[in-house]
């Protein structure tokens, strides 16, 4: 009798082990099936992204918002191959009206360069639409030149961009539509932060936060002008009302003109900027942000600007605009 009970117990334990094994196997199979299904669904979108930014340039024409379009103001400096590459890309963006190249080199642009860029624009034009190309020639080499007032600008929207960064036209058009909903704010792709610290003498001291600070906290208070939309009126304000001492400081230190524009807009609006999620393609070499002491120099700029403005105008926020048509995770 005892042996029979022992065999029954062993049989029951064996059955439970088999049941657990079968259940675990079923869960693993279900998990694998979900992973495979997700991969198959996401693969087309991922594949198009991995093919490069040139395949992402055409937005859905049916979703374009009406309006006058926007003007690109592109900062450049002796990087003609990058300039040609950037112009060739952005020329195909459907709501682009004109491209203004901020030229601060000692010699004017060569005739061959101008002819080549105009040829690119003509070849990229769609139907009767022709993007206008202009060189804004400056006698002085200063970072302030990128924010000089453009008298004959036809559009209210300005897309400020460096010559070494590329965004898909679909992302640019989406950011433009976001800007149309808040035309007094800066709307851009590259967020940065600031925060208040207490110094040893209990005076206020502000620190600059780069991308990792934004990533860690989810908070930002600036979008850099290397890739941002703003209203053309801010070019006039920067040119005519930005304190000369600050513009001299920027020229001397060759830094922080983007922070100055963020201060200018925030001071006028008392509102935060808008960060738009977008894939950035760096086509140039690393810039000044990769140099040692960059964060300290940017922090010095912030505190210098606070002293000049008489207050801290930057407003922090956690809002991010995401194009749900092309994003799985918002």
UniProtKB/TrEMBL annotation:
It is found in: Endomembrane system. Its main location: membrane. The keyword DNA-binding does not apply. This is Glycosyl transferase 64 domain-containing protein. Its cofactor is Mn(2+). Transmembrane segments: none annotated. Residues 70-323 form the Glycosyl transferase domain. GO terms for molecular function: glycosyltransferase activity; metal ion binding. The keyword Metal-binding applies. Keywords: Disulfide bond, Glycoprotein, Manganese, Membrane, Metal-binding, Signal-anchor, Transferase, Transmembrane, Transmembrane helix. It comes from the Eukaryota. Pfam families: Glyco_transf_64. GO terms for cellular component: endomembrane system; membrane. Belongs to the glycosyltransferase 64 family. It is a single-pass type II membrane protein.
